[in-house]
TrEMBL record:
One cellular component term from this protein's GO annotations in UniProt: plasma membrane
Gene source species: Candidatus Cryptobacteroides avicola
One Pfam assignment: LysE
Transmembrane helix recorded as keyword: yes
Chief place where the protein resides: membrane
Subcellular location: Cell membrane
Keyword annotations of the record: Cell membrane, Membrane, Transmembrane, Transmembrane helix
Name listed for the protein in its UniProt record: LysE family transporter
Membrane topology designation: Multi-pass membrane protein
GO molecular function: amino acid transmembrane transporter activity
Regions crossing the membrane: 6-27, 39-60, 72-91, 112-136, 148-170, 191-210
Length: 216
């Protein structure tokens, strides 16, 4: 069991490590608002990984079939959510309410729910979890076996540990940035997220237009 818990902890870290829209969001929040705000945002991603881990360990085959059957809808809806979040990041000024002092460290649940929405709308994230569980040889066929609870907790702890370390590191370097530099980081990261969202929408539209056309 100890070995399985360590494997699950590594799964949580590995699932959080890829650079995607959530990671870019966490970077933006950490640089503009500080460690605590960035970590809270990362906890949104952590919750997504936890839910996906529960699905992976109890209903891997069923979840894969559902995702494949509704992949186009997931791509379009997810792409729209990611695009909107990216656009708001690109055009917003996180320092507009700051009247004095060089920093703002406000914590907002909106950041947490943004990460949550982006995570659940990304079909690639759950496949990463599936692949990691398969690679480390973790799985369970009985939905009533609660012995896997420590494994789920370990995945969540691994993800939380990763985001805590990353946001602390970003906050350390944040002190070397000027407000104008951080503002441009917000705009650039927002633009990158918009591109990712549009790519998801484009993939969904491609599947609708070309893969569902009748063969003449």
């Amino acid at each position: 069991m100890i070995i399985d818990i360590l494997k699950a902890f590594l799964i949580g870290i590995c699932a959080s490590a890829p650079v995607g829209p959530i990671a870019i969001l966490v970077i933006q929040i950490s640089l503009s608002k500080g460690h605590k705000a960035g970590f809270v945002t990362g906890l949104g991603a952590c919750l997504v990984d936890t839910v996906f881990s529960i699905i992976a360990i109890f209903a891997l085959a069923l979840a894969q079939r559902i995702i494949e059957e509704h992949r186009v809808v997931i791509l379009l809806a997810g792409g729209l959510i990611v695009t909107v979040v990216g656009w708001r990041m690109a055009v917003s000024n996180p320092f507009r309410k700051v009247k004095a002092g060089p920093e703002t460290r406000s914590i907002s649940l909106k950041d947490f729910f943004q990460a949550l929405a982006m995570g659940f709308s990304n079909p690639g994230a759950i496949f990463v979890i599936f692949a990691l569980f398969a690679f480390f040889g973790l799985g369970n066929s009985s939905p009533h076996d609660w012995k896997v609870a420590p494994i789920i907790i370990a995945v969540s702890a691994g993800a939380a540990f990763y985001w805590f370390c990353i946001t602390a590191l970003l906050d350390h370097f944040r002190k070397r940035f000027r407000l104008q530099t951080i503002l441009w980081v917000n705009r650039i990261t927002g633009a990158i997220i918009v591109i990712i969202g549009l790519a998801l929408i484009g993939e969904g539209l491609f599947k609708i237009i070309f893969q569902r056309m009748p063969v003449l």
